[in-house]
């Protein structure tokens, strides 16, 4: 594949229909004064990308016309707009994928992740970043420290979800943490909670392989559960026994009625539950009992101002995301299809990464 330079055609992975991805030409917008053109080098596959591929929708976002997929990414600056002072060609950068308006009350208040006019890579109708090249605002491109690889740079996007969740829940050196779900987001939330100082972290999942990965990555305890809602009471007792102390904060990284019911029941009085996963649009959960114990419930949506901290954690080794990258593929039609199939299958795949 060409790199999109002179005479080369910029290619991208287009979602053109249910379970149909095609590597096709992708014409870039002109380079604005505050933009940079980036040669993509590492792009990870996220659960939402797979969701779009399988159903052409994710929550309320519906794919109505062909769309370039991908949003976890890093690359090398090829060209800079004439007003860009912070970056130069050759710089290695991690990209924050959401462009907010900077004019609405949310943006002015600092909560730009809630901007109603957010333009986010691979969220319809905005094109994503699984391409040879993309154009992006310079202020959303963060220079990688010398000892942080491009793949690790691409991992800043999922890691940002964990870091934003830990900030929302005020995780610190005295916070015991329970995490429902040991998938990619559960695991990055665990790594973030540890970096924030959490002294004890327990992970819960239905899958024994995922739990063994969590243990290898530093979980203090693991609890395997069923999918049966009738088992919640017994499982909560086992979780509390495994924690060996009250659960201060629970992160539900799955977002199902059962996981949220478990989270609310397992968390100590006066504790917090942070809903991270979005498995079910609607849930039936025991809110009244949790409210009577003053359990706070907070939600998160994406992240804000997380890339500098992600890169600092990676630079200092406080977080190591490398073990999460389990599969690597090149950027070709056949490998794009195979990579998405690998990610969708789950099994031993945690993070599937493209090397462009």
UniProtKB/TrEMBL annotation:
Molecular-function annotations in GO: oxidoreductase activity, acting on the CH-OH group of donors, NAD or NADP as acceptor; zinc ion binding
Cross-referenced InterPro entries: ADH-like_C, ADH-like_N, ADH_Zn_CS, ER, GroES-like_sf, NAD(P)-bd_dom_sf, SDH-like
Needed co-factor(s): Zn(2+)
Keyword annotations: Metal-binding, NAD, Oxidoreductase, Zinc
Superkingdom of origin: Eukaryota
Metal-binding is among the record's keywords: yes
Enoyl reductase (ER) domain ranges (all copies): 17-354
Pfam families per UniProt: ADH_N, ADH_zinc_N
Gene3D superfamilies: Medium-chain alcohol dehydrogenases, catalytic domain, NAD(P)-binding Rossmann-like Domain
Family: Belongs to the zinc-containing alcohol dehydrogenase family.
Protein name in UniProt: Enoyl reductase (ER) domain-containing protein
Species of origin: Aquilegia coerulea (Rocky mountain columbine)
